[in-house]
Task: inverse folding
């Protein structure tokens, strides 16, 4: 059956049927399509198109279809144009001509928008749960090695010493913003399009606010033409997903490096790594590499729809059918990656002595020395040069920071004070970084506690 056709003398060609059909992917929307149609049946009763018995019969038949749709047999032999046609055909088999009333005053344009929004709400909520669980595991990892000292990097060169927990909290902030973006996307998704018709608004006096309340929407859309051609809410989610994947990819790159033989900072669990079919010694970070690789896939999904929408004239165009496959894939990949990164995080073991040694043997403390000189009255540019000359002298003579004594330091430059030799220990200089957001141990301890409180608030919002 078709939901259209009276204007046509012949049906579509076999090639066009095959080319334009979407049931093989939009069947994913069957449950939300049924739920939306049940709400619409109740709306039709309120405007007098259905009586109470008819509405009861349709809602009951939809319940039966929902139960049956969980079986593969529901789709066997189906040649319907899309999921909406499939559901109506199945409904007609149960209710006869009564099924013909269900589309009164409703366009597939608004029906598709409704179905996608209902489906996306569930997917976003699932991703929010996964994100909060991951944030919790990240904080557990930070707490486990709270006072471990590592070198922070710029340009992938040792820069300044920081706490491991401070490093973990940096990613916590990134992913907290991602959670916020998901929540903002959900707000834009959670707006009811029903009542908009094909583009001009329905010709029936539906109580749109009542339908919104029935389906759990926060608001109704404001312009029927805008609704017909709108996929901004999809792009909002896919942008949020793409940015989350960007941050996941950066974290994976770090941990791939830090778990390598060259860095030797951390160990990943056997359950999230794999071996080589040829080289017996290998323990590969495949889980992290796959997440890093899937970042490009999600970006491609976003870009595909973004480019599809860029040249469309006002209201609905069939190009917009191309929104679903990239959206479905984007949501699936994001959820899978969030689940995987939590699994990886829970296996991480930090070899605290390795990064601590890297911080101690390098000259990551040079900034602490320059700033100490500045605090004692030496102009900073001059202090910077003195500290730089000390580094150069040490490199030329093979001396590490710990090799300098207080006496030697003062002999090298009288601007140094004997007590500044304590700054040759990375953990000592960090104590001066007490500004909010800094890596001073007391600040990080408070930031970690605050982050744990925030995670609890995130959980309460789920």
Result:
């Amino acid at each position: 059956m078709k939901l259209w056709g009276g204007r046509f003398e012949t049906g579509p060609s076999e090639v066009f049927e095959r080319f334009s059909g979407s049931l093989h992917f939009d069947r994913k929307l069957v449950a939300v399509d049924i739920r939306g149609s049940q709400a619409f049946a109740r709306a039709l009763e309120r405007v007098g198109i259905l009586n109470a018995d008819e509405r009861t019969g349709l809602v009951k038949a939809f319940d039966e279809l929902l139960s049956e749709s969980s079986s593969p047999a529901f789709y066997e032999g189906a040649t319907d144009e899309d999921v909406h046609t499939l559901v109506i055909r199945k409904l007609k088999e149960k209710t006869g001509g009564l099924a013909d009333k269900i589309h009164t005053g409703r366009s597939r344009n608004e029906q598709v928008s409704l179905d996608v929004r209902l489906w996306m709400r569930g997917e976003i909520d699932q991703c929010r749960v996964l994100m909060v669980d991951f944030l919790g595991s990240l904080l557990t990892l930070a707490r486990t090695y709270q006072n471990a000292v590592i070198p922070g990097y710029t340009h992938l060169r040792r820069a300044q010493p920081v706490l491991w927990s401070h490093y973990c909290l940096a990613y916590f902030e990134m992913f907290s913003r991602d959670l916020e973006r998901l929540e903002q996307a959900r707000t834009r998704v959670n707006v009811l399009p029903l009542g908009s018709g094909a583009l001009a608004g329905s010709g029936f006096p539906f109580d749109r606010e009542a339908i919104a309340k029935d389906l759990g929407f926060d608001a109704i859309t404001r312009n029927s033409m805008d609704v017909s051609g709108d996929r901004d809410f999809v792009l909002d989610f896919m942008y949020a997903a793409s940015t989350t994947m960007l941050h996941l990819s950066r974290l994976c790159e770090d941990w791939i490096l830090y778990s390598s033989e060259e860095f030797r900072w951390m160990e990943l669990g056997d359950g999230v790594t794999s071996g080589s079919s040829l080289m017996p010694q290998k323990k590969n970070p495949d889980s992290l590499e796959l997440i890093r690789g899937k970042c490009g896939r999600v970006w491609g999904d976003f870009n595909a729809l973004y480019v599809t929408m860029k040249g469309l004239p006002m209201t609905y165009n069939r190009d917009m059918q191309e929104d679903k496959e990239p959206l479905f894939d984007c949501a699936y990949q994001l959820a899978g990656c969030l689940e995987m990164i939590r699994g990886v995080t829970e296996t991480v073991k930090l070899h605290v002595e390795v990064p601590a040694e890297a911080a101690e043997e390098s000259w990551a403390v040079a900034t602490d020395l320059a700033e100490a000189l500045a605090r004692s009255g030496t102009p900073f540019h001059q202090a910077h040069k003195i500290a730089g000359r000390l580094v150069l002298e040490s490199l030329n003579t093979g001396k590490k920071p710990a090799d300098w004594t207080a006496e030697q330091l003062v002999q090298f430059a009288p601007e140094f004070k004997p007590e500044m030799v304590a700054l040759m220990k990375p953990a000592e200089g960090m104590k001066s970084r007490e500004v909010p957001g800094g890596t001073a141990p007391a600040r990080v301890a408070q930031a970690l506690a605050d982050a744990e409180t925030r995670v609890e608030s995130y959980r309460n919002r789920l």
